[in-house]
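pasting for ref
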Amino acid sequence: MGVDFTNARVDGKSAQVAVCASPTYTMYFAREHKGHEGVRGTPAETHCGTLVHDHDATFHNYGARHQGCLAHVLRYLKDSMNNEPNLTWNKEMHGLLQNMIRAANEARAKGCRNLGSDVVSGFEARYTEVLVKARGEYEYEPPSDYYKNGYNLYKRLGKYKDSHLLFLYDLGVPADNNRCGRKHFTHNHPPVWLELPGGVNCNVLDDVDQCFLPGPFTSLIIGSIISIPLTYNITSQGGFVDDSDPTICGYQKKLQ
């Protein structure tokens, strides 16, 4: 299951939205804060399987196994490459992770359940070599006060090595958390479950994509039930869906 927190506006106020997404369903929970308080009452709190998420350490307290989102890691590595051009570890790790993801995708497409011990061992050994190189480069050229993100990334990749490489051992685990990502929900997404402030729930089914504006506007949040009519906000770039939309009006009637 993919889990994530994203910023949103609920009735004009800033909020955190906990997103829990499986291949079948997606659930949104409006919360005032992230962390354990935000996880409480969501499926992530009691999930006994694998959680796929970003580097928010909170999620490591839940679930049985963890896969770090490599889409995030690849972006962070690109950022390090742009801000630390004299280093080489970031470029090597970026290429290595891309090769890992490609190998996993190709094996999955062939119906394989794993990559094979020799392939995984080779990738893991190379991963360790690149981290050793990163340590040496930062010892020679310490991170500046202006930019420490690359160094912090190197430390996370070492500390949570098993979590970043789980997808190599189990091809049923995705290498990224795009299931919870914003672009995932624009079209042909699974059903969405929305929890409104006040404890009221709404199951929004197949035609929910009609509520989305074209482009990057993706995450649908329902406002407080004490607001009549209900306000629908889109989290990305402050966009919104007008409440005169007939699809939304239908959901308003259903909720009222």
